[in-house]
Recover the amino acids of this structure.
């Protein structure tokens, strides 16, 4: 009986590893983050659906993620005392930063086998960004890269639940 239980556990572990999909594809699980191409949108927050003037995208960020986008180029500005996703002047279209991050966090909550990346163009302080990330709950998914270290595989990022890589222009 003991041997059968061990055999069954080994078969189940093998089956679940074989069934794992990383960003929709099992073959990506063994690839390092820096070896994967991520479909991206420029000014992802600037959408027709969110009523931006001269938008870069049609659908809002949530729909872009549902459609397969895994990297988002995002601009963060301050509008008065509010942090917002804006492209240029926030009067031409914006979304509250915490609200937008919360939408993306909800996607990560419901899609545990997906790894995302942000490329941020920022006009606010790192402390303000950290505060917004914490308030939205998305911080728990952030991967902390140490310069000089090898990137983990997508499978490792999914296993540790650090599935968001945030890069910035500053």
């Amino acid at each position: 009986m003991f041997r059968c239980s061990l055999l069954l556990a080994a078969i189940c572990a093998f089956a679940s590893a074989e069934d794992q999909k990383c960003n929709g594809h099992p073959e990506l699980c063994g690839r390092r983050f820096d070896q994967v191409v991520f479909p991206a949108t420029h000014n992802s927050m600037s959408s027709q659906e969110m009523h931006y003037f001269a938008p870069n995208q049609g659908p809002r960020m949530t729909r872009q993620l549902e459609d397969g986008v895994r990297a988002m180029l995002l601009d963060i500005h301050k509008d008065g005392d509010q942090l917002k996703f804006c492209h240029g002047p926030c009067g031409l279209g914006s979304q509250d930063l915490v609200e937008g991050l919360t939408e993306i966090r909800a996607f990560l909550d419901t899609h545990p086998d997906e790894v995302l990346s942000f490329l941020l163009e920022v006009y606010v302080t790192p402390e303000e960004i950290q505060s917004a990330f914490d308030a939205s709950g998305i911080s728990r998914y952030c991967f902390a890269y140490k310069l000089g270290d090898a990137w983990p595989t997508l499978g490792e990022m999914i296993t540790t639940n650090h599935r968001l890589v945030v890069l910035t222009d500053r």
